[in-house]
């Protein structure tokens, strides 16, 4: 239904916008930026910080433009003396209760509060707390929270509740004692956080950051006894460039490979290859379940945030998850078995580093059920895209000027099917390319499955395969996952195959990706730009189906045997364990 248009003036400029538009949005359409701090479009629209106030003729006081709707004939002023004074005073009061360690803060140079202070010309803080109590909480494997740098914008709270559904954080206490924490101030490790890191990329300051594991990697690179292997995930190649001020969606695969090699890694492989093995194993498992009457729907297990959510919130559906390891874990497993044997290296001397878009991978690499028969965990350290960017900067590499390198071949040839793993729907499309050709025995044209593409949170499609109609769903964001899984449990929804990614939009929007400020996030479709770059790479790949990857064929032929076979299961599969829902049964300590 088409909305009525509303006419108003902003700073004397005539503007016409749809009914229901906020003043903030209307100003943007007129080329006027109104500063904001707590506002995240379609997520956190609460008018709490008061940085975005404006004058509206006839209003009794300044109004928060992010929540104030336009009306016919409204007259708005965004840059009067009263507005500037109010914004600056509000910002000074926020800064008065903020630990200003900007030079040593993980977000220095990328902090929205720091940017606002510069824009407002604040060169001193008139009101300041002399002493901050210890407010750092680092119990989780993936995250550090420092409430002395928190501005109480509630962006993290909103993301955790609205997009991820888990809602494990919120404001505690009142007044000057208000702080963001878990219920009863429990440590994050004691609640059912899924380690997705969406709160980190939503945070405007250094109050939330990933646990930095770069020192572990530097130590391994400097250890002559260690043979250090690295592999980046599919989506990292189209996001890493943002850390070096390159346009969103720039594919920097070649520069990334060169940077990794110059950092000192002994081998630079591609986790895309691990993703191709995931398709081979997952596709085989799905076809087996279809033919043998196995548990359906089968649900993908590539996203560790989703896996943890299922174990904690939907334990009754654990048998529906694929037993395949994620691409990261398959990659590490093959390095410490196949590659170790072929290269004549003791697996215990191999140090495997993954570069991931995801903070949940830091949790996944320490899961005991992933341990190999030789006693090794597949991956030793998982770094986020942001951590790799810091290592590159620290090394003095001029990233944007680096020549384009190529992955080492033994585990470094990928397909386009693996490349699109980085975007929601990519795993499903990659699996369908292989499953359909396997079942039909013919070559598919075209290869694109447009029904499962796009950034919608829930997508559905039906495909007629030989002897069977297959119903599939693609889901991203855990709030959407809950909707679909509730329907599956109740019997209202019927699918054969479901792809679930923990982060909205998939890995391109992971909690470990470069942080974009709200002034970019609110008005630019970041996920679409990153996704397009992956689909463009897929379209130009020599191999676009996982089963055509020559590395995959060679490893199965020489080492693993057939897909889904005994040795493949031993190395590339694992089990997932339902977690007792102690937070919902009243059995937590102290209850």
Shape: globular
Number of helices: 19
Helix fraction bin: 25-40%
What is the CA-CA span between the terminal residues? 51 Å
Radius of gyration: 25 Å
* Broad structural category: alpha/beta
Tally of DSSP β-strands? 18
Spans of 5+ residues with little confidence (pLDDT < 50)?
581-591
The portion of residues forming beta strands comes to 5-15%
Major beta sheet summary: 5 strands, mixed
Numbering strands along the chain, what is their spatial order in the largest sheet? 2-1-5-3-4
Mean pLDDT, nearest integer? 94
What does this structure look like?
It is a single chain. This protein is of the alpha/beta class. The chain starts with a strand and ends in a 19-residue tail after the last helix. A five-stranded mixed β-sheet has the order 2-1-5-3-4, sandwiched between helices. A hairpin with a 6-residue loop joins strand 3 (53-56) and strand 4. It is built from 19 helices and 18 strands.
Please tag this protein with its features:
single chain; 591 residues; alpha/beta; five-stranded mixed β-sheet; four-stranded parallel β-sheet; disordered C terminus
Structure summary:
Helix content is 33%, strand content 13%. It is an alpha/beta fold and 591 residues long.
Secondary-structure blueprint of this entry?
Blueprint: E1 5-10, E2 13-18, H1 23-29, E3 53-56, E4 63-64, E5 75-77, H2 81-96, H3 112-119, E6 136-137, E7 143-146, H4 155-163, E8 170-172, E9 179-181, H5 198-202, E10 208-210, H6 214-221, E11 227-232, H7 253-263, E12 267-268, H8 271-292, E13 298-299, H9 304-313, H10 327-343, E14 350-356, H11 360-364, E15 381-384, H12 385-394, H13 416-419, H14 426-440, E16 458-465, E17 468-476, H15 478-490, E18 497-501, H16 518-521, H17 526-540, H18 550-560, H19 566-572
Parallel strand pairs: 1-5, 11-12, 11-14, 13-18, 14-15, 17-18
Antiparallel strand pairs: 1-2, 3-4, 3-5, 6-7, 7-10, 8-9, 16-17
């Amino acid at each position: 239904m088409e909305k009525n248009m509303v006419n108003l003036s902003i700073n004397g400029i005539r503007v016409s916008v749809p009914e229901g538009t906020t003043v903030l949005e209307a100003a943007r359409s007129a080329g006027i930026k109104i500063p904001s701090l707590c506002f995240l479009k379609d997520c956190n629209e609460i008018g709490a910080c008061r940085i975005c106030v404006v004058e509206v003729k006839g209003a009794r006081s300044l109004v928060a433009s992010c929540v104030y709707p336009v009306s016919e004939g409204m007259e708005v002023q965004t840059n009067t003396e009263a507005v500037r004074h109010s914004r600056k005073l509000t910002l000074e009061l926020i800064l008065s209760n903020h630990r200003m360690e900007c030079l040593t803060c993980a977000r220095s140079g990328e902090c929205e509060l720091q940017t606002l202070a510069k824009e407002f010309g604040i060169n001193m803080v008139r009101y300041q707390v002399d002493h901050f109590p210890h407010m750092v909480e680092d119990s989780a494997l993936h995250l550090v929270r420092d409430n002395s740098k928190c501005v109480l914008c509630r962006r993290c709270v909103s993301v955790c509740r609205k997009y991820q559904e888990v809602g494990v954080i919120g404001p505690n206490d009142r007044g000057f004692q208000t702080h963001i924490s878990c219920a009863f101030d429990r440590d994050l490790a004691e609640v059912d956080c899924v380690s997705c890191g969406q709160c980190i990329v939503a945070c405007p300051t250094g109050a939330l950051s990933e646990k930095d594991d770069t020192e572990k990697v530097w130590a391994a690179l400097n250890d002559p006894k260690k043979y250090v292997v690295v592999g980046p995930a599919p989506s990292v190649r189209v996001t890493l460039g943002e850390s070096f001020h390159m346009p969103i969606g720039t594919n920097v695969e070649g520069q990334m490979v060169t940077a990794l090699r110059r950092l000192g890694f002994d081998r630079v492989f591609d986790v895309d290859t691990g993703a191709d093995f995931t398709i081979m194993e997952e596709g085989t498992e799905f076809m087996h379940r279809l033919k043998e009457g196995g548990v359906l729907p089968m649900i993908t297990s590539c996203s560790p945030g989703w896996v943890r959510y299922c174990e904690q919130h939907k334990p009754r559906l654990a048998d529906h998850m694929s037993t395949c390891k994620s691409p990261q874990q398959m990659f590490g497993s093959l390095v410490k078995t196949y590659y170790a044997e072929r290269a004549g290296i003791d697996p215990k001397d191999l140090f495997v580093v993954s570069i991931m878009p995801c903070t949940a991978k830091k949790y996944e690499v320490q899961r005991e059920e992933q341990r190999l028969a030789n006693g090794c965990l597949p991956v030793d350290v998982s770094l986020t895209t942001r951590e790799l960017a810091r290592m590159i900067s620290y090394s003095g590499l001029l990233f944007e000027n680096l020549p384009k390198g190529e992955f080492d071949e033994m585990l470094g040839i990928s397909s386009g099917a693996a490349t699109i793993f980085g975007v929601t729907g990519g795993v499903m499309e990659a699996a369908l390319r292989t499953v359909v050709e396997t079942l039909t025995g013919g070559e598919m044209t075209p290869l694109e499955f447009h029904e499962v593409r796009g950034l919608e949170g829930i997508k559905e499609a039906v495909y007629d395969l030989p002897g069977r109609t297959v119903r599939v769903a693609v889901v991203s964001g855990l709030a959407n996952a809950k909707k679909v899984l509730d329907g599956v449990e109740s019997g209202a929804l019927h699918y054969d195959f479901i792809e679930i990614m923990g982060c909205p939009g998939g890995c391109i929007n992971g909690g470990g990706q470069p942080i974009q400020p709200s002034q970019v996030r609110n008005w630019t479709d970041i996920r679409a730009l990153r996704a397009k770059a992956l689909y463009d790479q897929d379209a130009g790949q020599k191999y676009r189906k996982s089963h055509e990857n020559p590395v995959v064929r060679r490893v199965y032929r020489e080492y693993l045997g057939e897909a889904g076979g005994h040795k493949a299961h031993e190395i590339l599969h694992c089990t997932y364990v339902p977690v007792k829902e102690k937070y919902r049964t009243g059995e937590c300590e102290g209850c």
